[in-house]
């Protein structure tokens, strides 16, 4: 750890070759083009109301793409709902602090830029008559769930077996489920032959193979806390992706609640389509209903149970779709901050949540994790994240040396999702 700790600079897209630069130059234009293609596929008749609205949205997306491409100044959002009003307030702060000429995709923070893209898409759809509730990413999220059905079957079968076995190693199961929630999408099922027990065994074996790639590994400490110190208290899970990842979060929550290890679990998602795959209220409802109707009895049992489980609740506070990092939660969403602070643990899933936790800054790799969390260090939290962006904190000297020996000056390890962190913070 450095002897003197200073707030690191924000990640921005003004460094050619950086991941932020590539997001603005390549990734977001591709994503928004996919939205255009999806709209035209879903609403091919330009003469009906849906088709007309779709083409109106398409024309607005083309303008947004030009703003990205030509580094024009951000355009204020049409304040159709409260989210967009708040976003304009943050945009004005950006102009006041950095100068209006710097309110663009090159000079503003990468975090603000990304949030701006998805807020604008939300505005475009809200401005229509017929597509206010349309999710351009729904097809992709739904396909991801169906593609993961073998994983889901295996987890459901294992969960039923654990329920029946009074000798189940509770801490060991929680440790496995936390790792499944981290790595599940990377598990290869090609050698399973379709048997759920073999799939599960293969999945857990592969998790052991991935363990060395968790650069900060507090999995066992988090499992110990959940197994022994969370009873009669609330656990929060801040969702990342829909599909398999959402199901792994539900499986973890089910085990904790069914075993009486926690009082209840509060899930947090996004109010509108966000960063392609983030969980919205419609996603949460659709996944539970889809599982409940599945032809496999093991999956259907849990789908039906989760639809009615009083210990589960889903919320989508406005704060999660603000362009702010989580350092601002205490000031702008004080009641949410106090609720998380008083909980047994809040599990933050995924890359964007991690970026927001540590301020989305270009930290030295060995910076103290608590320092990088700033005010969020007051919250008992556990961050589960595969690395997909060029910020990370709290690495050991040994791991920094290993990464430098393996990659030299190449930073591709920070964005490949081949490495992960599982970082626990206790106040």
Q: Can you walk through the features of this model?
A:
The chain has 427 residues and is an alpha/beta fold. It folds into two domains: 19-127, Transcription Elongation Factor S-II, Chain A; 137-425, 3-Layer(aba) Sandwich (Rossmann fold), CATH 3.40.50. It is built from 17 helices and seven strands. Strands 1-7-6-5-2-3-4 form a seven-stranded mixed β-sheet, sandwiched between helices. Strand 2 (234-238), helix 10 (244-258) and strand 3 form a beta-alpha-beta unit. Helix 7 crosses helix 8 (196-210), helix 7 (170-183) crosses helix 9 and helix 7 (170-183) runs antiparallel to helix 10 (244-258). The radius of gyration is 22 Å and the shape is globular. Mean pLDDT is 94; it is low at 188-193. It comes from Panagrellus redivivus. Its cofactor is Mn(2+); Ni(2+). InterPro entries: ARMT-1-like_metal-bd_sf, ARMT1, ARMT1-like_metal-bd.
Which secondary structure elements does this structure contain, and how are they paired or packed?
Layout: H1 19-42, H2 49-70, H3 82-98, H4 110-126, H5 138-147, H6 149-164, H7 170-183, H8 196-210, E1 214-217, H9 219-228, E2 234-238, H10 244-258, E3 264-268, H11 281-292, H12 297-308, E4 312-315, H13 329-332, H14 334-341, E5 345-349, H15 351-357, H16 369-373, E6 381-386, H17 397-407, E7 420-425
Parallel strand pairs: 1-7, 2-3, 2-5, 3-4, 5-6
Antiparallel strand pairs: 6-7
Helix pairs in contact: 1-2, 1-4, 2-4, 6-8, 6-10, 7-8, 7-9, 7-10, 11-12
